[in-house]
Amino acid sequence: MKLYQFDLAPASKRVTFFLKETGIEVPIVQLNVRDGDQFEEPYNSLNPFHCIPFLELADGTVISESVAICRFLEETNNMSKKLFGKTSKERAIIEMWDRRIEIDGYVPLINGIRNKFERYEGKVLPGTRNDLPQVPAIAKRGIESCRILFERLNAHLNTSPYLAGDALSIADITGYEAVQLAIAIEMNFDEFEEVKAWHEKLDRRFKLNE
Question: pTM of this prediction?
Answer without folding.
Answer: 0.95
